Amino acid sequence: SPYMPQKLYGEISSPLYPKPYPNDIETTTVITVPPGYRVKLVFRQFDVEPSEGCFYDFVKISADKKTLGRFCGQLESPLGNPPGRKEFMSQGNKMLLTFHTDFSNEENGTLMFYRGFQAYYQAVDRDECAPQVNSVEGGYQPQCQHLCHNYIGGYFCSCRPGYELQKDGRSCQAECSSGLYTEPSGYVSSLEYPQPYPPDLRCNYSIRVERGLTVHLKFLDPFEIDDHQQVHCPYDQLQIYANGKNLGEFCGNRRPPDLDTSSNAVDLVFFTDESGDSRGWKLHYTTEVIKCPQPKALDEFTIIQEPQPQYQFRDYFIVTCKQGYQLMEGNQALLSFTAVCQDDGTWHRAMPRCKIKDCGQPRGLTNGDFRYITTRGVNTYEARIQYSCHEPYYKMKTRAGSSESVRGLYTCTAQGIWKNEEEGEKMPRCLPVCGKPVNPVTQKQR
Amino acid sequence: IIGGQKAKPGNFPWQAFTNIHGRGGGALLGDRWVLTAAHTIYPKEHNRQNDTSKDVFLGHINVEEIKKLGHHPVRRAIIHPDYRQDEPNNFEGDIALLELENPVTLGPNLLPICLPDNETFYDEGLMGYVSGFGITEDKIAFNLRFVRLPVAERETCQRWLQTKKSNDVFSQNMFCSGDPSQRHDACQGDSGGVFAVRDRDRDTWIATGIVSWGIGCGEGYGFYTKVLNYVDWIKKEMGEED
Lengths: 446, 242
Hints:
Chain A is mainly beta.
């Protein structure tokens, strides 16, 4: 019997089609499509000698060890048993088509000629995940123990979280040694919850969320872990760690309290012994952006820009000083200051101080001097000094209409510079006074 | 100075004592310029030399004392371009500026003199003071002396020069002072010093002239460089200092 190569579609027709088919033959064609597919066949043309029960000439379709039908007659005629436009579908990836003719085609002594048939087949994906009736017990026999995933041409199995697919590709074995949860919130539960958890478990659930988030745990009801009246959790126990620090070991039927782990890394370790039918546990974890302490100024000259009621991870605050004061971090003068809330809930820099700007010792004036108008020797913001020249030998150069007291007055500005309101930083100048001898010639005798 | 008297401390605090080609005078302008006569630096009938040391002393009326105060190094000497060292009878442009290396600190004995700003300081008869460490009655002076002189009429001086059969240039950039009846005059060693006039309106002393030349000493008139005509040049060279 001719073997069709594994194609995804094809045509089959009777010998000599569309000429009348020969007498006294029997051919069986095996239609095979790739594994994971099923065969779907439909007749386009059908003209086979009709007879009661298609006794003389017939076409027989069979698949999966079952006959799907025995056909003869013409598509549109009621005689015989024509297949019509019916679509024949195999379960597996094979289908057999048998064409049988007897030694003659006579009707009332007249030779009849029948052209036979033309059929078209194609491979159709088989949904291995659809419920398959079990041939033996007749019950439903799932392909996979947990989850089945069909794809064109095949399928694969997977397992629920906490289980691992075994080598057979379909059964699942508890494997919960490295459950990893990275979403900002979610649920973690013992295997099969709220059904009893399997025995002999060594489960490790790791919650790893983004730095700067802190994990909150809230256990749900029912909470059931085997325990003992006198001894603390001798059989099964659920241990919780945050950043490696043990937050407790839990069992029994009382839900643990809500936990704020103050960490973005939480580990739950769940050990069970060989027996027990407790229903296990389930928790809902949520995260909250970690907070930093409210920034507090260290002195009255410090200004926290746009203070917020609360600061959380990645928030920052900017500090400036009142006019005339200098940002200081230790002994270091700063031009600006920003502190960022870190992922551990602390500020990445300590609050600075604001120190009054110091203009430093005023510059000496050649051929002149200065005196303090404000506190002597204090050169800080808003201090004022008055420069003057060594009169009468020198005189301060002033703009027309200005005066020495105005030109000579310097104030320590917010920029930390001594400045005069007329000339800014520029120092005054003492110019020689000409033609003014302090002891001019005088003559008495006349 | 002939016929004058000793100065007291602080009388002429601008007075400089120079010792370049012998004794000379000068006057402090600002706090780092000395006004003097070009011929104290480039004397007539001398070959033009540039390397002579230019010692300038300030701030005292006694020669020994002023020297003890130490000389003021001269950064540069600026000679007026009209000065002709090689023309012994022409003291045109007899004016020079000595720029001191360092500014001086002023005080009662060291003060600058002002520059003139109008012609009234040259009115006939206006009294002025000439001070200097120059010779007196043929004797060298140990102290600063001064004499009071009136500005003389130009024609009078002109005629006087003729009686002296002098062919010296007496240009518009000069003026003369003195009274032939009085033996009052400047003399050798006073060159470079200034003829100082008191501006009563502003109560300031003005350098209107520079002791420049004369015929003999105390016998008639003295001739001075007219500073008013060089004020622009002076200010330009001083860099327009105030």
